[in-house]
Specification:
The structure holds two protein chains of two kinds.
Chain A lengths: L4 E13 L4 H12 L7 E13 L3 E5 L6 H9 L6 E6 L3 E4 L12 H11 L4 H15 L14 H13 L5 E5 L7 H16 L3 E5 L3 H7 L2 E6 L2 E7 H15 L15 E7 L2 E2 L5 E4 L4 E8 L7 E8 L4 E6 H4 L4 E2 L4 E8 L7 E10 L6 E12 L17 H4 L4
Parallel strand pairs in A: 3-7, 3-8, 5-6, 6-7, 12-19
Antiparallel strand pairs in A: 1-2, 1-4, 8-9, 10-11, 10-13, 13-17, 14-15, 14-18, 16-17, 18-19
Helix pairs in contact in A: 3-4, 3-5, 4-5
Chain B lengths: L16 E5 L4 H22 L6 H20 L12 H23 L1 H4 L1 H4 L7 H24 L13 H28 L3 H15 L11 H9 L3 H11 L7 H25 L3 H4 L1
Helix pairs in contact in B: 1-6, 2-3, 3-6, 3-7, 3-8, 3-10, 6-7, 7-10, 7-11
Classes of the chains: A alpha/beta, B mainly alpha.
Chain lengths: 401, 282
């Protein structure tokens, strides 16, 4: 038996009215009053089927304008669908463009009370949870200041704190992790993971495939208002990334968060300094990558190694956090990670090896060091890597009688 | 496979939309209402210099101005042998009117003012509108009762025994205001200059109602028109009870109640018809 459905959407569609001229609004009003559909409309979402079951975590990916936020708003109930069916069960906690819904004139505390009431908490529940909320937000005495004096980060903190404490059946977040400082991001990621462990359900919009893959097990890719792919998070995000790669081949290196806190100090490939002449290896040789990282305040960074092709498309990437191995400390704020690729499966060609420094949560990328690697060989196999394979002998191919 | 995205408005195309969600629940709506109500009251006290006295001071100033203009400049007098003084005559109708007109003009922008909230959080949208109406009435009813209690200072003592019924009539007036407020706040989302029109119309309506003058002082032809004014009965009922100490006539009272309920019904119908489209136009 499968878990109960929290969200069930069938053929869901949304069209926004076209209101370019002033008269359009009046016309729309009269048309709606007469029981019509309003004026001409621009479709932004169409034929979306989406099921979210209790305990699932679904990532919504897609380009800007693909309809992700619109879909979330429909599910939240802020928007009314133009077509289709939508069933929503359970209490939804939604963070749409975080902190919004706060009134800038009121203090943080008043806004928390208001927001909590909006999420359906009673006055007693609000009182009981106020301390937890304030502790989670961790914005100190600012809580008694009007929200208009807050930094955007503080607004985000407060917003997340309220939702986190409203115990939603379904948590909906829209680019939450993109805002807020690193510390708070980690806190949010940790909280969401814990929430999912306890059986919570998540619907997440993010442009960070890393977050989507880390937090979600399913994904849905929206493209021009339609579902392009749906299913396992890795299948969907990879299809999405491949699509993007085709669109703009290697035009953007991964954006770096402010370098400095965590940095790649150096990298050695088979004992050669990566900053020196490009290393050449034979296809099938061993490759040993040593990366030295810098961190601050004794916080152990996450080290990642990536292999990319000359055009920037990824071949493989793995981090210490993914494999659950620690990085070795080798001095004041210096760390070292060494990884071996025995019998390198890369086919002959030009590659780059990237050493990446991430924060201890493995959430944000801080620094990258890249070294060119030439793999030589005489193989005629095509592609990028040699996959393990075996041709069956003639006698093996015959189906047993 | 799904077809291409069609414009959602095909002539004659049925809007096949079904939405089902766990109901928000009345208790939730009530809690929200209380929050908005308290917030609205606090809002008005916090920013203003006069604080909690606001409810008294504003109509008092208004009353002083009107009394000066009408009593000293125009030498207005209430017709009739045992007529009350002009000031008591004015104030028992002016105070309810202030609550009525202020609640409508403030509530008209209630949805637009809360656009940020409405765009981010799902909630029953009528809550902020009704909270504004209720808070305006709470404030001015409080002021009304206070001024009625000190009415002997202005000449004539009021018939205080009628106070409970006065409050009942005031509640009826609130229902009427809520009907107007729901309709206007919903339309304000679509037509933003509506509130300016509303303010002007309310000003006109104030002088068209028998607040500053007695219905009896008007020429015969005008009385029929005055009776159509939704506030006329309220002005009269308040005077009947507080100044003359007798109950308002039964049939007009029932008609007034019916009018209030019908307007409330029309207002909510209109509001709920437009409600699903607010977010598209906010």
């Amino acid at each position: 038996m499968s878990a109960p459905l929290l969200v069930e959407a069938r053929g869901l569609g949304k069209a926004y009215p076209k209101v370019s001229r002033r008269a359009d609004r009046l016309q729309a009003l009269l048309s709606l009053l007469a029981g019509g559909h309003g004026t001409q409309r621009v479709p932004v979402l169409a034929d979306v089927d989406l099921d979210v079951r209790r305990g699932e975590s679904v990532g919504l990916v897609g380009e800007n304008g693909a309809g992700k936020s619109t879909l979330l708003k429909l599910i939240t109930g802020v928007l009314t669908p133009s077509t289709g069916q939508l069933r929503v069960h359970g209490r939804i906690g939604a963070l749409l463009e975080l902190g919004a819904g706060f009134n800038p004139e009121y203090t943080g505390r008043e806004n928390v009370a208001m927001a909590a009431a909006l999420y359906g908490l009673s006055a007693d529940e609000i009182r009981a949870r106020m301390d937890d909320i304030l502790a989670f937000a961790d914005i100190g005495d600012y809580i008694n200041e009007p929200v208009k004096h807050y930094s955007s980060g503080m607004v985000v903190r407060l917003g997340f704190a309220v939702v986190a404490n409203s115990m939603p059946d379904l948590l909906i977040t829209d680019e939450v992790l993109a805002v807020g400082d690193e510390n708070f991001q980690k806190k949010c990621v940790r909280w969401i993971e814990q929430y999912l462990d306890q059986g919570g359900t998540l619907l997440l919009v993010s442009h960070s495939m890393y977050h989507v893959q880390k937090l979600c097990r399913q994904a849905c890719w929206l493209h021009h208002g339609r579902v392009q792919a749906q299913g396992d998070v890795f299948d969907v995000t990879q299809a999405y990334l491949a699509h993007n790669e085709r669109k703009g081949a290697g035009d953007a290196a991964p954006a770096l968060a402010n370098r400095g806190e965590f940095a790649v100090l150096g990298m050695n490939l088979n004992g050669h300094d990566a900053r020196g002449a490009p290393l050449q290896v034979e296809s099938g040789d061993d490759l040993r990558v040593e990366i030295e990282l810098h961190s601050r305040e004794g916080r152990e960074p996450v080290c990642m190694v990536g292999v990319v092709r000359a055009d920037g498309s990824g071949v493989y990437g793995v981090s210490t956090e993914m494999d659950g191995v620690p990085v070795a400390r080798c001095g004041e704020d210096r760390y070292r990670a060494v990884v071996e690729f025995p019998r390198l499966a890369l086919l002959p060609g030009q590659y780059a090896i990237r050493g990446l420094a991430l924060d201890p949560e493995g959430v944000r990328l801080f620094d990258t060091l890249e070294a060119v690697l030439t793999v030589r060989g005489h193989s005629r196999e095509s592609g990028v890597v040699r996959l393990a394979h075996r041709w069956l002998g003639v006698d093996e191919t015959e189906t047993p009688a | 496979m799904a077809s291409d995205i069609q414009p959602a408005t095909q002539p004659g195309a049925p809007a096949r939309v079904t939405i089902a969600r766990a109901d928000v629940g009345l208790s939730h709506a009530w809690r929200l209402f209380r929050h908005f109500f308290v917030r609205e009251l606090r809002n008005r006290f916090l920013g203003s210099f006069s604080g909690g006295l606001w409810a008294l001071i504003q109509p008092l100033v208004q009353l002083a101005i009107y009394s000066f203009v009408f009593v000293y400049i125009f030498k207005a007098r209430v017709p009739g042998a045992d007529a009350p003084g002009y000031v008591p005559f004015l104030l028992v109708a002016l105070w309810p009117w202030t609550a009525f007109s202020e609640s409508i003009s403030r509530a008209t922008t209630a949805i637009v003012d809360n656009a940020g909230l409405i765009g981010k959080v799902a909630m029953p949208r009528s809550v902020p509108v009704l909270a504004v109406v209720a808070s305006s009435f709470a404030l001015h009813t409080f002021g009304f009762v206070a001024i009625v209690l000190v009415m002997p200072l202005f000449g004539d003592p009021a018939h205080l025994a009628w106070l409970p019924l006065v409050l009942l009539v005031q509640s009826m007036l609130m229902l009427l205001a809520a009907g107007f407020a729901l309709a206007l706040s919903a339309m304000q989302v679509f037509v933003r200059d509506l509130v300016q029109v509303v303010t002007q119309v309310l000003m006109l309506a104030m002088f068209a109602a028998p607040i500053f003058y007695a219905r009896a002082a008007m020429p015969e032809w005008a009385r029929g028109w005055i009776d159509l004014h939704p506030f006329t009965w309220y002005a009269r009922a308040m005077r009947d009870m507080l100044l003359h100490g007798h109950a308002p006539a039964l049939v007009p009272s029932l008609v007034a109640l019916l009018v209030a309920l019908v307007l409330l019904g029309v207002g909510s119908w209109l509001f709920h018809r437009l409600d699903p489209h607010f977010e598209d136009f906010l």
